[in-house]
Amino acid sequence: MRDHACLIVYGPDKRGVVAAVTGLLARHECNIVSLDQYTDNPDGGDYFQRVVFTRPHLTAALPELESELASTLKPFDMEFKLTDQSVPKRMAILASTSDHCLLDLLWRHRRGELPVTVPMVVSNHDVTADDVRTFGIPFFHVPSQHGPDKSQSEAEILKLLAGNVDFVVLARYMQILSNDFIEKVGVPVINIHHSFLPAFIGAGPYKKAKERGVKLVGATSHYVTEELDEGPIIEQDVVRVTHADTAVDLARRGAYVEREVLSRAVTWHAQDRVIRKGNHTIVF
Amino acid sequence: MRDHACLIVYGPDKRGVVAAVTGLLARHECNIVSLDQYTDNPDGGDYFQRVVFTRPHLTAALPELESELASTLKPFDMEFKLTDQSVPKRMAILASTSDHCLLDLLWRHRRGELPVTVPMVVSNHDVTADDVRTFGIPFFHVPSQHGPDKSQSEAEILKLLAGNVDFVVLARYMQILSNDFIEKVGVPVINIHHSFLPAFIGAGPYKKAKERGVKLVGATSHYVTEELDEGPIIEQDVVRVTHADTAVDLARRGAYVEREVLSRAVTWHAQDRVIRKGNHTIVF
Amino acid sequence: MRDHACLIVYGPDKRGVVAAVTGLLARHECNIVSLDQYTDNPDGGDYFQRVVFTRPHLTAALPELESELASTLKPFDMEFKLTDQSVPKRMAILASTSDHCLLDLLWRHRRGELPVTVPMVVSNHDVTADDVRTFGIPFFHVPSQHGPDKSQSEAEILKLLAGNVDFVVLARYMQILSNDFIEKVGVPVINIHHSFLPAFIGAGPYKKAKERGVKLVGATSHYVTEELDEGPIIEQDVVRVTHADTAVDLARRGAYVEREVLSRAVTWHAQDRVIRKGNHTIVF
Amino acid sequence: MRDHACLIVYGPDKRGVVAAVTGLLARHECNIVSLDQYTDNPDGGDYFQRVVFTRPHLTAALPELESELASTLKPFDMEFKLTDQSVPKRMAILASTSDHCLLDLLWRHRRGELPVTVPMVVSNHDVTADDVRTFGIPFFHVPSQHGPDKSQSEAEILKLLAGNVDFVVLARYMQILSNDFIEKVGVPVINIHHSFLPAFIGAGPYKKAKERGVKLVGATSHYVTEELDEGPIIEQDVVRVTHADTAVDLARRGAYVEREVLSRAVTWHAQDRVIRKGNHTIVF
């Protein structure tokens, strides 16, 4: 994505913002590659826009573009975020013993399909260490503390992440992160929940799904917030099951939905396609 | 389905029951058309079997078959239900103002795709009366009572149904039936709920779905029990939505999932494919 | 869609066109509701844009807008089409004996989900006449001529359509229209083919699908061109089948895919979401 | 699957075969775990049955069971195949440079989800050698011959396979096997084709799909026969694409459908769920 930039604009909807932004880009000889926009309420709602554009010698031009965007958007009272798409985001993965989501992310990364670098995998177990290192990725083993206080192991993880990552993915990481951790980590954290949220919140969703006798099981990728399994949903999908599937079968079939859903969510986040507003996401 | 019968066998799993049943059918010159079976737990679980078979002059032979099945299955401690598939089940439909599920059922029935007769449609509104009668189906208007006590209108509906129907379908009937009604009606009642249960139980599921920001909406058809939206699920399905869909859009797209899910559930019930055990269904 | 307009712009890609168009709209106090764009080749490809916008007293303002757009887009060498979305397109339906696609379109239209008027249904059979007229839609019976020459019945249909319709939908119309008809009709013609094209081109696709032993059957909606089943595809979908489904079962299950696919294609066409380029469609 | 056996019975349909087979199993104290059956034509068609059953000390009992089955089925003129499910099938994988199908199979095998052993991976390239050996699987590099005559490299592969494998999987193996090879290999060969067959037979299906402007791309797993891409289909699936996807995007999205479809086909084959009749499969 050499010489590609992504511009996100958002704020209270006002007439003329598309013209203002695209006019500025045209004057700077930028070529628009894609443009998406959305207003969540035609009467006084918020406006969201994503533009991807190219320009020769983009990196050198970014500071001036940034400053002009600031003055252009000030009268509109809108905020913006301009990112150089030639710089991949740095993604840390937290995992436990399950490898299906973890390995799928590492494969896709190696295939060149995820626009990220992976500076580290951190796990509270060491069973996946060899697999991870085969991909040339550093693996750190941080065992979970026994008992409800996880502050020491969380501190150790925070120290590894600090300054090194742009977002964190919980690839079936089976520890509940404390609110303190989520606050301190300072970057978005993406989780994969093994159910079609809001059904079967909390632990053991496949067992609960079997007990309720559902005919589809699903997976949900969402941003982690202080309320467990209540963060903004990025992506979801389901797969058909029958009465003959045991809870173990559900977990097995669900695993393949989990890895697809998580990889889509991670890709879209890495491409700056996901904008959060309250407990919702706009996915362009 | 002339000369076709369906035999359902169920009870605590024991070795030899398939052989006993199919042996009996072979001795009576019955041709097995399909056979499905399922044991919900290999160690001491329950056994469920569905056999469809044909035999010349079936109706005349049924009483003897029934009596021999009773003696054959007695040592196995299993129950059975033998139905003549040339006799379609009588299905009453309860509806309100929405017509998408109602008309889809009537139209599939007219196409010859639902193995049922439709002796009546009962509605608490009269807006669909002309449409229903165009299909040659009797329409009865039973307005809902105001206030929490619905005993009088429910009594009127029960009187219409009594002795005339084999099962009842709630095709987006927007009244909650009392436990008293469910007890007295004496036949299975199938509902279509406009969400992917157990998510968004109760009223206004599309509004709740919009508020939660889900990426799929769904529909669930289930048997009605005394607990609202908690009965055994027969069938479910979902459709993809985006942030740009309003709650009205969700309802609109969901409507087409509802009609598909309900018609599958009704077809399977009418074909004796659905067996209930506790809060679960086995769908053969 | 009062005071809503849709602007389609297309031609060889050039920098600055988004800015030019949105700048013009801003000067005319138009509010952009949605904007989609696509370039089919970053190096010298074609550019396609769809903008929906609102403006008070739109109808009165359209002529001036149209003339300014012409001058604005001239230096870009681009063409455009500006439509008043408060004026629904007039859709004629051609049908034969199958009613599933026909009735689904009429239902959706009556529910207010299709932004069209339906001035007429024309059929070479009269079996659906009563159903169609129940919806308050005129029904014309034009029997097909025997033999290969259909010029007289086609002339009769053309006379009915002339000046009265903006597009034609073949809702399982079982006659092959002559090239002469397609040329003379002068409006887009949308067909639903009962297979996942390009598999099973021509007659009897479900029979061919059964013979080949496929595990999915599908439907394809496309614009009709002079080459049978080769026109630009608008929408496709599939449904799972098994070895146990007969060719009749495939047709039955496929019918429900056909009606969904056709109604999506018709909706998108009616909303000016579909742009044709050669044998392809861009669907915004 | 200790003490589990699978019995396949097939031949011209006759009344009483279920009773005969299940009666024999009951007399031998076998517990039926699952039973599926299918008749492809109620009037003089063929009958197919699959029974999975358990019995203590199964292996010791198999020879006697086999001999009694032979006498029992003789009057029915039916053939059968009895397999000990505690003995996993030996699966060789042939691959080229693409790793998505190959690694997915190896990873599912390691997770214990494929009831097979993998005695070897053979490839005409060596790029996947390290990955394969990380899973503890032998890797053999057999470069393809230049020119149309591949007899020498095929002979080398045949020598590796001979006596060592029960079936062969072509996991995106980019060489066309000669009819001579298919005859000599003597075991079923399963291929994954990167399109929804019979659409886009032959090379470059994603490019052809882009050219035709389809809205879904798919994958097909089938048994290899002498006619290229014409063998009996085991499984198919599709994924939605848009006008904005390039041929490279189609290949990328299709890759994930390929790995799912191939792994389902391989699993079902390994579990003796797939029966071939002519160019069709019955999948129980």
Automatic annotation (TrEMBL), chains A, B, C, D:
Transmembrane segments: none
One Pfam family hit: ACT
Catalytic activity: (6R)-10-formyltetrahydrofolate + H2O = (6S)-5,6,7,8-tetrahydrofolate + formate + H(+)
EC supergroup of this enzyme: hydrolase
Pathway(s) the chain acts in: Purine metabolism; IMP biosynthesis via de novo pathway; formate from 10-formyl-5,6,7,8-tetrahydrofolate: step 1/1
Gene3D superfamilies the record matches: 3.30.70.260, Formyl transferase, N-terminal domain
Active site: 229
Domain ACT: 6-80
EC number: 3.5.1.10
The keyword Hydrolase belongs to this UniProt entry's keyword annotation: yes
Keyword Cell cycle tagged: no
InterPro entries: ACT-like_dom_sf, ACT_dom, Formyl_transf_N, Formyl_transf_N_sf, PurU, PurU_ACT
MF annotations from Gene Ontology: formyltetrahydrofolate deformylase activity
A biological-process GO annotation: 'de novo' IMP biosynthetic process
Keyword entries, A-Z: Hydrolase, One-carbon metabolism, Purine biosynthesis
Family per similarity comment: Belongs to the PurU family.
Function: Catalyzes the hydrolysis of 10-formyltetrahydrofolate (formyl-FH4) to formate and tetrahydrofolate (FH4).
NCBIfam families named in the record: PRK06027.1 (NF004684), PurU (TIGR00655)
Protein name, as recorded: Formyltetrahydrofolate deformylase
Organism: Pseudoclavibacter endophyticus
Upper taxonomic lineage: Bacteria, Bacillati, Actinomycetota, Actinomycetes, Micrococcales
Gene responsible for this protein: purU
